[in-house]
Amino acid sequence: MVPVAFLFGFGVSGFNGIWMNATTELVPEEQLGIATGFSITVGSWGVVAGPPFFGFIVDMSGSFISGWLFISFMMGIVVMLLLNVMSVKQEESKKIKHFS
Question: Record keywords: Phosphoprotein included (predicted)?
Answer without folding.
Answer: no
